[in-house]
Amino acid sequence: MVKIMKNGAMLMKMVCAILFLIFTFCFLYCYQADILTVAQHVLSKGQTHYNRTIGAVLITIVLYLLQLGVCSFTKLDHRTHALTYFPSLLILATITDINTDIDRGLSLGVWLWIFPLLILLYVVWVWLSRRFLPYEPGANSSDRPLRMMWINVLLMALMFFLVGLVSNHNDVFHYRMHAENAMLHNDFKEASSVGQKSQATDSSLTMIRAYALGRQGLLGDRFFEYSLMGTSRVLLPDGVTTKLLLYPEEKFYKSLGVVLLPRKDPMGYLEFVNKHRLGTRMAADYLLIGYLLDRRLDAFAYAITQYYDVSKDLPIHYCEALVLYNHMHSNPYVEYHNNVVEADYKDFVRLSRSEKRPTARQAVLKRTFGDTYWYYYFKR
Fold first, then answer.
1. Nearest-CA neighbor of 284 among 295, 270, 296?
2. Fewer Cβ neighbours under 10 Å: the N or C end of the chain?
3. What is the Cα–Cα distance from 114 to 317, expressed in whole angstroms?
4. Closest residue by Cα to residue 176 from 48, 302, 284, 37
C-alpha cells in the first residue's frame, strides 16, 4: 500500500508539472505574446523586441524553477501540492495584466498592494497546511491516490482560470497588438484578418485595418466588411483616440506620401498631399474612403474621376457608392451603371422596406448586406 501511495504521489506531481508547463507556455506563446511585445517595447523605449518563442520558453522555465524552489522549501505534499505553483502563477498573472493605456507608462496599479497581500495570505496558508499535514488520512484508504490526484488537478484548473481572468483579456486590444505586430513583419494580410468576424472594435483598430488593407491595395474592396468606429478622423493616428503602439508613425505616413509638420486633420492632410501630388496611390484610396466614411458622396463622386476610370472595373465599395450616389441625384456629376450592383442595391432597398420595426430591419440588413457601403451609409 505504501508503494502504491508513493507511486500515486509521484504520478500526481508529474501531472501537475505537465499541466503547468503546457498551460504556461501556451498562454504566453498563443495568447499573451502580442501583449508582452508591446510591454517590452514601451519599457525599453523601442530599443528591444520581444520574441514570442524565446520569451515563452524562458518565462516558463523561470516560473517552473521557482515552483521547484517553493516545493523544496514548503514541503507541501499530497492534497496541497498544487499550491506550490501559486507564486509562479501569481507572477504570471501580474506580468500579463497589461493596461490598454500602457503608452502612458507602465503602472502596477492595484498589484502594489494585492501582490504582497496574496503572498502574505499564501504564507499563512502554507503554515496552516504544514500544521495539519500529520493529520492527513492514512494510507489504508484505497481511493486516496485517485482523490489526491483530482484535488490537485482541480486546484491547478482553478488557478489557471484565475490567471486568465486577471490577465489582459481585452479582445480589441489583443486584435490591435497582433495586427501591429504583423505589420512590423510586413504581413499585412495577417494584420487585416485579425478579428475580422468580431463586432468588437475601436477607432484605433479601424485605423489599423484601413492601413493594412491599403498596403494590400484592397481598401476599396474590403474596408466596409468590418465593424467600424468613427469617421474619417480615425484614418490617421492622433495619439489620443487613434494610436499606434508598435508600428512607427513615420513609416505609416511615408506609405501615404510625406510627413507634414505641423500636423493636419486627416482629411486636410489627404486633400493636401493628393492635390499637390505628394501622395501615393494608397493616399488616393484613403481620400476616397475618407469621403465615404463621412458620407460625402458629392465630394467622392468628384474625386473618384481624378484617380479612376469609372467606365472600367472599380473596387466594389466604390461601385456601391456610385450606384447610391446616382440614385440620390437626378442630374449626377458622374453617371455610373453596373447591372450587378444595381440589382443588389434594389434588393437592399426592397429588404429595408419589407421590415417596419427598426431593430429587426437593422438585423436583417446586417445579415444580408452587412459587408456593403450601403449598410454603413444608412446605419445610425
1. 270
2. C
3. 51
4. 37
Which cell goes with 76?
507541501
Residue 336's Cα: distance from chain center in Å?
39
CA 89 to chain CA centroid, Å, is 23
Tens of each residue's pLDDT in the chain, 380 residues:
445 445 667 888 899 999 999 999 999 999 999 999 998 988 888 888 889 999 999 999 999 999 999 998 888 777 788 899 999 999 999 999 988 888 776 667 788 888 899 999 989 888 887 776 665 554 444 446 778 888 899 999 999 999 999 999 999 999 999 999 999 999 999 999 999 989 999 999 999 999 999 999 999 999 999 999 989 999 999 888 899 999 999 999 999 998 887 778 999 999 999 999 999 999 999 999 999 999 999 999 999 999 999 988 999 999 999 999 999 988 889 999 899 999 999 999 999 888 778 888 888 889 999 999 999 999 87
61 to each of 13, 52, 56, 162, how far by Cα in Å?
17, 14, 9, 21
pTM confidence score: 0.88
Cα–Cα distance list, 369 to 319, 321, 352 (Å): 14, 14, 10
- Alpha-helix residue ranges (DSSP H) falling in the chain: 2-26, 33-43, 52-74, 86-95, 111-132, 144-166, 171-184, 188-193, 203-216, 219-222, 249-256, 266-275, 281-293, 297-307, 316-328, 339-354, 358-369, 373-378
Burial class (CB in 10 A: 0-12, 13-18, 19+), 371: middle
CA distance 312 to 308: 8
